[in-house]
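Think of the structure tokens as a kind of shorthand, similar to the way a musician reads notation: each symbol stands for something richer, in this case the local conformation of the backbone. In the example below we present two proteins back to back. Begin with the first one, reading the sequence and then the tokens, and try to describe in your own words what changes along the chain.
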Amino acid sequence: MIRVRGITKRYGEKKVVDQVDLDLPMNKIVAFIGSNGAGKSTVLSMISRTLSKNEGEVLIDDIELKDWKNEELSKRLAILKQTNHLNIRLTVRELVSFGRYPHSKGKLTAECQRKIDEAIEYLGLTKLQDRYLDELSGGQRQMAYIAMTVAQDTKYIFLDEPLNNLDMRHSVQIMKILRRLVEELGKTVFVVIHDINFVSCYADHVIAMKQGKVVVDGPTGEIMTEDMLKEIYNMDIKIEEIGGDNICLYYK
């Protein structure tokens, strides 16, 4: 379980995250939503220890974040940032193998190879595993990076805007895979996401932020209402059911 108490982030005199408290649910897709500058990515980065906090505490399985050794924390949580730049030419398989570093320290074992094979197959990349990343489309590259986090085989997965600049096909494919990670492998996935249609269809739990504070957090069905979305985004959003459990949200 991950518990967040009073975390704050300041840049000079400006607070970009202000006294955030959260009890994050397990074995679910947890979506962070809100307008640009709301503090979503900053909170995700502080929880995953890729950004220092000025105040507060984060407890990962009852241990404060600062008390975790790097090698042990990297076996507990995997992080995929919004932008990923590599200065070396890698194949898909070579990239995915980086996910095993916390376990192998660069010396891949038979178990590591099995985890790499599983991650590549899970993301549907078997036929592309020997291709170089710069030969792939943006969606295919993003799938490869997600496969790297899957190969890391952690309890928690943190993804910062994984659908950024992707087409509809790859976005749907990635969200379906995240859903499978939760339902089939028992992972807990935290994702910063802007498309609230995807949130409504795939997320279990939503944390809505505004001006560095949590406006509301709870089950997706309770958050995805016209009144609540208006409060979060300061604009009218229309919700229409389009059959079954699927809904369509659009700006009026």
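Once you have a description of the first chain, move to the second and do the same.
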Amino acid sequence: MAKPLEVDEYWSERIVQSVNGLEYGTVQIVVHDGRIVQIERTERKRFEAEASAKKPKATQEPINNNR
């Protein structure tokens, strides 16, 4: 049978800090032997397709292989 997980104020605050300000992403809580041992935050940034289409294209100089 699994051990009951105790979440004290310290971990509650850390979990809230990890979630706070997250627009897109995940917060993963890792538990070992009934204790929180790690909090992982993965944040994603989304960009509008229109914004990237308006970005000016970089100009490239032709490569001259004649030496």
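Compare your description with these statements about the second chain. The chain has a mean pLDDT of 83.
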